[in-house]
Amino acid sequence: MKTRTRDAAMAVTVLCTAVALAACGSSGDSSPGGGSESSGEDTPSIGLLLPDSTTARWETQDGPLLETKIKGLCGDCAVEHANAKGDVALQQEQMDSMITAGIDAIVLVAVDARSLAAAVRSANEADIPVIAYDRLAEGPISGYVSFDGEEVGRLQGRALLEAMGGGSERQIVMMNGDPSDPNAVSFKKGALFVLKGRVEIGKEYDTLQWRPENAHMNMSGAIAALGAGNIDGVYAANDGLAAGSISALKSNKVDPLPPVTGQDAELGALQRILHGDQYMTVYKPFAPEASAAATMAVAAARGESLDRLATDKVSTRGADAVPAVMLTPVSVTVDNIKDTVVKDGVYTIEQICTPGLRAACDEAGLT
Ligand code: GAL
């Protein structure tokens, strides 16, 4: 552990308030003034750098789970939390602040993998291990935890084909994610592996910052260009893009709605699935992902090797054979909501089944 640690959390807190890091937070402090003064010299501090609040999972699932798991493994660890609000410069600044403050380990979901590489290098030079969470970061990272992204795309592609049924001249719209996120590239690759040659891709878009409103705008453009009745399916890379696409289809009076894919098992997506507006989502179990990353982060903060925690190795630009844990994504349709997200306790039936969805929930066995 670094000797700087004692001052680290306090300095991060100071920087968080002083240097436009509006979205910082600390949970390791018990002193009324904030900071981790009270936790003493041996207290490791771990930074969580989340990318945005556009996609619900980061703040509603991953952030709280990571924090709980870190605390469970290391009761006196201080957790410093920052959200970059989709702003690359802000995330660089947040990371630099943590490095300057001498944090012991960083869990990073990069807004833009390439742009953050310099900050990852700075961390490495300062001997601060960086665990890339969900999105593979570039630069000398120490560990990586995620899901098989191409498999996510294949699950989406297969579900879309299944939902569209037979027929040779089916035309789809592809609403891909943000290409600065390496996952978006993998999702698209996996989806194309399944869809290529089997459907006509009428229009395809990259969605900057994964913003639903950009998907809405692009879908409106696709409807205008292709004709409302000529879209047989929509490949949406995640639930936010599914929501934006579906709202555009509805405001353009497309009826019946074509099948739309998604990802992230958002509460709204499960409700759209029950309502019949969205066909599927991909569930990437949050708890095991957060648990694996928390275990790596705590070990890294204590200066332990991550090799024994890894089940895989990955390479990224700037690092080879990085210890990794790669998990398996699950396709969720109306038929297996109960056996997946409800069974895992992500949501209760009460949360999903609002009064308007009662009949659909009964039919889906959500009772
Ligand atoms: C990806 C992540 C997805 C989705 C998306 C938008 O990197 O794997 O689950 O949330 O970002 O933030």
Automatic annotation (TrEMBL):
Positions of the Periplasmic binding protein domain: 46-304
The keyword Signal appears for this protein: yes
KW Cell membrane (keyword) present: no
GO function terms (MF aspect): carbohydrate binding
Subcellular location: Cell envelope
UniProt keywords, alphabetically: Signal
Predominant subcellular localization, coarse grouping: other
Span of the signal peptide: 1-22
Region (Disordered): 25-49
Gene Ontology annotations for the cellular component aspect, listed alphabetically: outer membrane-bounded periplasmic space
Protein name: Substrate-binding domain-containing protein
Higher taxonomy: Bacteria, Bacillati, Actinomycetota, Actinomycetes, Kitasatosporales
